[in-house]
Design goal:
This protein is α/β, with parallel strands linked by helices and 116 residues long. The protein has four helices and five strands; from the N terminus they run βαβαβαββα. The protein has one domain: Glutaredoxin, CATH 3.40.30.10.
Length: 116
């Protein structure tokens, strides 16, 4: 499984619709930040190891698309951070993490705990 590129605000409507049945993940990445590069490595490795049962993961280059990054922050009412991962379910951000906490494993565990 690979990252899906997120480069247009209208894709957020599609993410919200898809999130009604399958979790969606947005990864906001700064190409100028070493911490963000490490977070991207973690996510990439998780996607390679766990090929089934994972949510769709959208990749946003927030350096070149800062306005879209701001739109995401407003739409899902989360403070902008970099790197940042948002888990979207039923059109709402149910979990977000930044820096070294960016991990599908951590996010999925938090999402599952919220369902209990």
């Amino acid at each position: 499984m690979e990252f899906k590129l997120l480069n247009h605000a209208n894709q957020l409507n599609q993410i919200d619709t898809l999130s009604q049945s399958v979790l969606q993940v947005i990864f906001k990445h700064s190409t100028r930040c070493s911490v963000s590069s490490m977070a991207k490595k973690v996510l990439t490795q998780e996607l390679l190891v766990n090929k089934s049962g994972l949510p769709d993961v959208y990749y946003l280059d927030l350096i070149s698309l800062r306005e879209l990054s701001n739109t995401i922050s407003k739409r899902y009412t989360v403070v902008h951070e970099s790197p940042q991962m948002l888990i979207i379910k039923d059109g709402k951000c149910i979990y977000h993490a930044s820096h070294s906490a960016v991990s599908l494993e951590i996010g999925m565990a938090a999402e599952n705990a919220a369902d209990l």
